[in-house]
Amino acid sequence: MSLVYENTRQLPAARLVMSLALVCVAACVVLAADLYQARSGLPMLLMLGLGALIVLGLEAYSRTYVVRIRLTPPWVEVETVRLLGVRRQRLRLVDFAGATEIGGDLTLGSYTPAFTRVRVAGRRLPLLLDSRAERVQGATLRALAQGRLLG
After folding, report:
1. Which of 31, 120, 121, 142 is most deeply packed, by most CB within 10 A?
2. What is the pLDDT of residues 39-70, one digit of tens each?
3. Distance from C-alpha of 151 to C-alpha of 128, rounded to nearest angstrom
4. Which residues contact 36 (CB under 8 A, 6 or more apart)?
5. Is the pTM value of this prediction over 0.85?
């Protein structure tokens, strides 16, 4: 099993964002309860809807933001961020279908992407790889993300 990508340095910041989002959900629920008592139906529904959207966004974030990738052909073990712990997924090596770089900095003729979005067959959401990761096996990761790495 070889470690291809590790981004644990960003975990505290990612978990802080998730915690703040949960505080916002709690505030939406409290406001909705106050609006219910005041018999304000539409604003209450809007607050509950906002809270639900935040929860859906957190779930999408926890399924896409990659913490660690380990390669054991023909499998790829991907760990994504959760509020507590990590979510482990075992994906087939042949399912990696391509990558797209998102955002980034252009300085003195060199381009550094902010994220790389990796498409995986059978997944609705792509995997997001942060370019600020502390351990990256660049050539292996690029080949994997573009579907050129065969076990």
Report:
1. 120
2. 888 999 999 999 999 999 999 999 999 999 99
3. 22
4. 44
5. no
